């Protein structure tokens, strides 16, 4: 096919797009056309490293890689379709008269966000780098932290229209082959129009997509993902998303934070129990408040009961409807503050929390104990920020159960929730490990955190092929006061 006809065909196949640039070319005495998409190509790089060197090429183009200094190795497309796929990814195509192949050159450049601290994972102490929307940059950030030849990165393309690049990263001498194969197998069966964000992939690879609890971790910091890889997990990076997925993911990870490993263990242990206590308050305090008012008011001390009766006297709504209404109002305010511009959202929070709440109590529409209980519950939610949505739905379910059968209903609901959690798995790992089933060696990084030198073994919860991660020599053993004959 002639060069002019081929260029017209490519232009037609790409919908005669306005940003498609077709420029005449003369290479080795042959007429042709450069074809690229404006905005995906660096014009200066294209001119200096492709067009000018090619203008000096000899008549024989069979050794174009060796004879012409170019920005990258020359690729060849055998068909118009493969050339079009490369063009929409940012490649520059060269169609020449009398040449069967279409030459492809890389001069890609587009705007990208710089590496900065992620807004959802700000830290006081520790690394401040965050992933960006460029999967190549994200892979490089991991390479910087894991300078090992065993760091393997597999590439996949998912999405009918987006053709998103998805990378599967793992340490070949740490991660279990079974886990890696399971991840790649599930990703290979994903058939979707487009992958806009890595979160699109979670429901396709989770063991139980219907569960409220996430079985895939999501993180925005390279240091956190690197630490997960060192424990034997597998990371999934998607182009266009600053969120990196890690599997397996267990419940205890929701109560851990990257800063925990840069602080004193005594403080970390207290903090983790505070997070657990906050989650318990968030889930059960509203339900217990409803159950006590509706059924088991006799369990309260007399003075406390009198105070609640005086505060709720004259309220037109029942305790159940009042609690549900206040919870919904708080969720609405939270959603509105997130969606509105930052400074307006701050003002909305003040108006909603102070003006609206105070006015409702003063008008007698709501009782002050209900507002207080909901406020404490909402604060407890954000001690475990990754599971806010999950706990928000669960506390409504617990309130409904408490309204029907009181504290007995809450106990049965807890039993059902416990059964669900202990039977849930994430890529072969028990979701409630290391507590159910009990894994003694993994308790060193549970709610009670031990010193780093004590964590000589990788977590047994996460299947791996290299359990030892710290080897203590005689000096370290003597410094820590350990017996040098102890087995590691």
Write the layout of secondary structure elements.
Elements: H1 3-13, E1 20-27, E2 30-37, H2 43-55, H3 64-67, E3 75-77, H4 80-88, E4 91-96, E5 102-106, H5 135-145, E6 151-158, E7 164-171, H6 177-188, H7 202-205, E8 217-219, H8 222-230, E9 234-238, E10 244-247, H9 265-294, H10 302-312, H11 319-339, H12 342-362, H13 368-381, H14 388-405, H15 407-423, E11 425-426, E12 429-430, H16 474-479
Antiparallel strand pairs: 1-2, 2-4, 3-5, 4-5, 6-7, 7-9, 8-10, 9-10, 11-12
Mean pLDDT: 84
Main pleated-sheet profile? 5 strands, antiparallel
In which order are the strands of the major sheet placed?
A: 1-2-4-5-3
Radius of gyration: 30 Å
Terminal CA distance reads: 70 Å
Q: Helical amount among residues, as a percent range?
A: 40-55%
Tally of individual domains: 4
Structural class: alpha+beta
**Count the strands?**
12
- Helix-strand sequence: HEEHHEHEEHEEHHEHEEHHHHHHHEEH
| Residue windows where pLDDT falls under 50 for at least 5 positions | 484-488
**Assembly type:** single chain
Shape: elongated
Beta percentage is 5-15%
State the helix count.
16
